[in-house]
Amino acid sequence: MDNTLWEIAFRDPHKLALFVALIIGAVGSYLVYRSTIPDSPRSARIIMGVLRFIAIATIIFALLDPVLRIVTKKEIIPKLVFLVDNSQSMSIIDPSGDRKKIVREILTSKTLAKLKERFPCEFFLFSDSLKPFSEPDFSGNGTAIGNALQKILDTAQTMDIGAVVLISDGQNNIGIDPVSVSPAYPFPVFTIGVGDPTPMRDVMVANVISSPVAYVDESLKVVADIRAWRAGEEKVMVNLYEGRKKIASKQVMLPAEGQSVRVEFALKPDKEGIHYYKVSVPTIKGEATKSNNQRVVSVNVLSSRKKVLIACDHLSWEVTFWKRGISQDPHIKVYLYSKKGGGDKNLRLPSPSPEALLAYDAIVLIHCGPLLKREFGNALSQYVKQGGSILVLLDESTPLGSSGLRALSNALPVEFVEPIAFRSGELTPKLGGDGYTSPITDIEGIAEELPLMPPLMGFVPVRPKPDASVLISCKLAGGKDTPILVVGQYGSGKSAIVAGSPLWRWAMMPMAYGRNSKVFMKLVRNLTQYLLAKEKIERFKIMPSKRVFSSGEPITFSAAVRNELNKPLSGAVVSVRILNPDSKMAEVSSTELTEITSGVYEASIPSLSPGRYIIKGIATLNGDTIGKASTAIMVEP
How many CB atoms lie within 10 A of CB 603? Predict the structure, then answer.
């Protein structure tokens, strides 16, 4: 029932003085209009006296600072809010009985009907999130009691809540701790326990991480985190499947309450394409739910059997050692064409067309003078532009002024310095400016080993193009450096040039002096891998464990870092910032990721408030930026 009271109050403290002034005003009005000159009718004098008194009274009334108060009294009956657990654990039959049946009996009980008669009631379902009430189907993937209580607390003032009734088995396994929410509650929370009060056993595959890209017949690691509750000192087999085929298994000891144990699988994909790997753990006795016992990760497996053509005019030690260095990679098939014989039987030089050349992933030109005609040079230039790769070795036999080399020059990473000529003279090699950071020259001890190598006997003066990288250079007599090994890109392809010779002695002479030829062999291998890395290299990628998180759930994400050869890169510094686009991109969190396996990094941050978030990251190595990446996630209420 509503009651409304109207009253006027005066805030001026000098009420008595103003009341006396009102009396004086009334007496004054009477005396002034008791008689007038000239004499007025009595009715007119009365009217003028009353009007003057009203004017005086109005002024005094205003001076009293009046306030009109309207007080409405309304009787509010507080609501009862019922939170009904809709998680899968509520469908279990345990020693206390069938939990689903117990919940339905509570919701249809006479006691609840009487409460509905006395109080307004609101019902909600909750599992990993809170939602309006409907017939419970007990399908939720988690029990977030703390999240549900926090959500009700946030809306308490608008709902006129008197008390909360929680119907649950109490197995809070995700989100906020209910104990941390309860001190802020201004009203009581009553609980109706359903099921055996002993915490339920559960084991889950919490996360699976792997590099998003792998190669056929190369090692690939799949890392999984296994989490368990009330399953300590029990051993289980963690299985790795590809499709329905089990490809690996490992036995682990399940951890203590809510903790996790990490399992690593090493495998070698045997064919290219998208591969789906599933990590699975068996159901343990008395487990609350089976839905979280497996998780899948996808990996794009690329073909690693590449074709490389070495084309030369004649055989030499240079050809022999370059072929040997390239062939050391079992994933590369080397074809040798020699115009003067000695190459692969029945192998012909491809016709001068980009289509014919694209049968090879890379082409190496050695002693190429008689081969490099204008038509072939044009075809090679188009071949690189369309995605092919070439390596050109310059020596005294190269026709530097030929129309073929000029036609190819667009695709090369250098410009020739006029007059174009091969200049003889001993030169000591050293790392160029880009050689200290390039994965091509990422060879242990190369900076110390290069000056000890046999000197080059000549060079062709070249100037690197703006986007090219100088990996190896030599210092001339005047103190100026001249580039020797330069790499770059042209169109969709790559090119490299060696502007000095001979290099084959780097492979032979160290062995003659009791040293090894690792610098030359690794340099050839890395350079070849660079030229063959045709796939679009996403050097840095951030991957959240899922796109949508529940409120109160920790945010877990990983990152993959790769070098220019598209190989996993270790030792990088990876950091991320979490931004809120709904608050002008305000930073809400930041962290640095930890490397868990070669080139794969991981981090976890505490739960975030519901909303959209942008994760922006940067990967660096030795202070140089490898790449930047971003992704988006959503946190549900």
Answer: 19
